[in-house]
User: What shape does this take?
Amino acid sequence: MRTRRGFTLIELLVVIAIIAILAAILFPVFAQAREKARQATCASNVNQLGKAILMYAADHEEILTPSRIVPGNNPAHPGTRIWNELVAPYVKNVDVYFCPNGRKPDGAFVPNWATRSWPSIGYNAHIAGWYWVGGGLPGNFDETLILPSRAMIKKPAQFVLLADSPNGPPTTPCRGYLTDNNWYGGCSGEPGAQARRADITTYAGIGIVARHSGGLNLGFADGHSRWYRLEQVLPYTPAEFNARYPGKTCAADEYRDFNPAKTHWLIHNTCNPD
Assistant: This one.
């Protein structure tokens, strides 16, 4: 009668070692695949929001979506409306405003756009913001709302509408609904956040963040989106700028448009960027 022979200890150890080696090889691959999927989801969200902004413009005589509208003269006015709310009829899915790698509120997100901190895909802060409608501000700023049209954008394929932006709860300095390429690594006032160039006027709580393998997704005014490494999007430092453009001088804020990726952030730039 034949007897069944089990595995020896050596055989078991060899099998376990092989499984451990395979796991060590495959786990990083799985992690990379998962991150690529999140990056693709974020890029899709950016693309959908970019198209929503363009559809809004098509329905409003080619005028771009305002980043923020504040009725009266009180920044905390309950009638405040930001671009996320304005394009909501073209989106109809609140999850689109978030990058999968960004911070998310606990529980189901109920839009309260007056907080302006939770969206993790930000709108270019230099398109239309900080304008007031009615109410009369000191200095005769009443009834001011200055909005650009799509025709003012000279190079739509290079002009940034949207980008991965730092976000968080209202207790943080973040304003995730807007973005600017001079602040990076987080919101101004947070650990690790910094300004690329000290000579560029910056805005508290507004910036870009590299959430995807050292880079971020950008959405452009022609409707396409693309991933870039963070350093491609940041403005040239003074030393880099002087080496690349010897003798050239621009107004401080215009340096935003000079970066390795040749992305444009300002509608009006007289310094002739790339």
Notes: Residues 57 and 63 are 5 Å apart (CA to CA). The first strand starts at residue 68 and ends at 71.
